[in-house]
Amino acid sequence: MRLTKPQTRPTVSPAENKMGVLPEGKLLFNMALPLIASMLVQALYNVVDSVYVSNYSETALTALSLAFPVQNMQIAFSTGVAVGVNSLLSRSLGEGNQDRANRSAGNGMLLSGITVLLFMVFGALGVTGNHPFIAMQSGVEATVLDGSVYVTICCLFSLGLFAEVLFERMLQSSGRTVYTMITQGTGALLNIILDPIFIFGYFGLPKLGVAGAAIATVIGQWVAAAMALFFNLKKNPDIHLRLSYCKPRSDVMRGILSVGFPSTVMMAISSVMNFGMNQILQGFSETATGVFGVYYKLQSFFFMPVFGLNNATISIVAYNYGYRKPKRILRTLRLSCTVALCIMLVGLAVFRFFPDFLLGFFHPSEEFLAIGREALRIICFNFPLAAFGIALGASFQAMGKGSYATVISLCRQLIVLLPAAYLLSLTNQVDNVWWAFPISEFVSLVITVLFFLRIYRKKIRPLEE
Q1: Domain that holds residue 34
Q2: Are residues 235 and 364 in the same domain?
Q3: Tally of structural domains, the chain
Q4: What values do phi and psi take at 313, rounded to 5?
Q5: Considering only CA atoms, which of 249, 231, 230, 322 is closest in space to residue 97?
Q6: Alpha-carbon distance 257 to 82, whole Å?
Q7: Which of 48, 40, 39 is nearest to 191 (CA)?
């Protein structure tokens, strides 16, 4: 259905849609569970390479930390294009405009292809030796070599990642989310199986080290992409994939980029943050940089479920905002905050009291364990703060205030975090640098609350009148 005005009730009774009548707790659980499961798969995908590579050498583990910003940037661009396609495609299907839906898919494939070429050129810079991006971050030859190999392989074969993300979004846009869980799960499982085979050279294969981890990653992505393409061709009659629909159309391109570009920027912020933190920590030691890379991947097991919960909350709040149901909006937000806090309190307890157990998966040296133990115990204080910030932030995107979310992301990861980390690094104590995370999260939460109070006064309270 379509709304002619943002605050006009649809002619269809809300009883016809579970978003308007199902108890908030049950609704949030049903919608969030598949998203949380998908996010956990992605978290597992991110950490597997590091776990296996840590058995190879600590230098290789640090190399993956230095390469991570590039991987994150690939995800940012691939997801940005896919989100834009998803939005335009869903809207076109809702309007019954099949031609525009098909052209949305085709032009999305074209944009993804162009972006893949850019990353391939970037990856090719490391074909003849050390990659400039890695070399500018480290002076240790072994680290630069391993990081260069990993970045080069992942970029040269990035078509698998872009195709997987795009085709999965096409399935989501037409409501066939079960297939995306299959493709993501298969890709992650394949990566887990192939990692040790290629890294350590099992079954008569050569011992490839970091290169093996990269090869396993791209194989998982390519297989998932092939499956997602198959499901679109055979199980998704709402979208017709033809080369003729790839012909560029300015109006379609604008529609995709207008939605996708802000999403790319928000996700790219974390790449800039990772690069900046790597630069600051390199002033202490390679080990400190490796510790940060391990922390960032471990924390995803708690942050990713909260982001999945956030995505479900956005849909519920947006729907009930359209139906002018302020009580359901507020109850949903309270539930979301409560569940997010519970998840993050578990994370706080695990990081605070069992850091050695977590770091033990990465076969740490004594120095790595000493630095990592304090890092995990300090940074985890930002978990409860992040729970409220992320959960409340769902209201911004749901009510058309995406700019608020962008401002908060900038504060959390750039404007406050990096300057605070740099100033704390001047104490020459690496343990002090980790306090930048709780500081930036506290500032971000204050801004989030102020923005939410403004939205409540301007948008939610008027619904009660």
Answers
A1: 14-43+299-465
A2: no
A3: 2
A4: -65, -40
A5: 249
A6: 10
A7: 48
Q: Give the contacts of 64 (CB within 8 A, at least 6 positions apart).
A: 49, 50, 53, 146, 147, 150, 210, 213, 293
Output the pLDDT for position 196: 92
For residue range 156-189, what is the model confidence (pLDDT) as tens digits? 999 999 999 899 888 876 667 678 888 888 988 8
Geometric angle at alpha carbon 36, from 451 and 116, rounded to 5°: 85
Instruction: Give the C-alpha separation, 235 to 21, whole Å.
Output: 31
Measured between alpha carbons, how far is residue 77 from residues 131, 193, 265 in Å?
21, 27, 9
Q: How confident is the model at residue 465 (pLDDT cuts 50, 70, 90)?
A: low
Element (H, E) at 362: none
Max Cα-Cα span within the chain:
73
Say which residue the tokens 């956990």 belong to. Answer: 40
Tell me the HSE value of 235 on the side-chain side, using a 13 A CA sphere. Answer: 17
Q: What is the DSSP letter of 365?
A: -
Q: What are 295-305's pLDDT values in tens digits?
A: 988 998 898 88
Q: Are residues 214 and 341 in the same domain?
A: no
- Cα separation, 95 vs 167, in Å, equals 21
**Domain-embedded: residue 411:** yes
